[in-house]
Structure formats: structure tokens, C-alpha cells
Input
Amino acid sequence: MINKVTAMIKAQFPAEPVEAHCDGPCGVYDPSSARVAAEAALSMTKKILALEPPAGNDAAAMAAYLNTMARYIAIKEEQTHIAKTELLVLWTDYFKPVHLEQFPDLHDTFWQAAKLCSAVKVGVSLEDAQALMATVEKIHNMFWQTKNRDVPWYTAS
Output
């Protein structure tokens, strides 16, 4: 019965076919969310490397140190995962074959960014975190060039 009603409605009110980059035709893309997440991962990497364990046998101080370290690690991993997800959406949903003509290294740049996200997530390397930021900046510039816009790169640090 429901299928019959649906068919009748479709027959009475036909819809034009639409295309979308994803499940919803939002059309909203911006590399800034990847930048913010990568920058948070860089910040947490710096904090992890700067955190000093307490001297002596103070159990409360050690617990506070371990708690802070665990929080920094959790945030770094979460934000790196977000950066990777945002980058992969740009790569797979926004960029099209025509962009490969404009940026022949597009696939390699995104592949490197995804690999750097993995490295930053599982390690504690300032060099990897900085390389991720540089790669996200390159993607930022590619993205805005496809829109013929000059959007300055911004970081909070």
C-alpha cells in the first residue's frame, strides 16, 4: 500500500534528478577545520614534549602528571583523527579530475597528509606535527586556488 501511494505521489509530483558530492547536497567545503585540528595536534605534541615528570616519590604529583599526559595524548589523537577525516573528505568529495590538471601532485599531497596524520597520532614527533601543518597549508592553498580566491593562511600560534 505504501509503495503504491509513493508511486502515485512521484507520478503527480516528479522531481528533477540532482547530484551531490555526499549524502546531502550541502556543497560546503573548507580546509579550515583540518587546519584547526592539525594545529591542536601540534599544540598537544609541544605540550607532551614539554611536560616534566615530578621529582621524588610524591604519588599525588605523579598521578597529576599521568592524568595531564593522558589528556594531552587523548586530545592529540582525537584532533589528528579529525584532521585526517576532514582531509579525506576534501580529497574524495571536493577535488575532481579537473583539479589534477591544475595540481598534478594533488593525490601525493593528500596521501602524504593522511600518512602524516597517522604518524602524528601514534607518535610524539614535533617534526611530523610541523610537517602535517605545512601539508595542510599546501592543501589550503590548493583548495582556494580552485575557487580563484586568495584566502590567507592563519594559525593561532
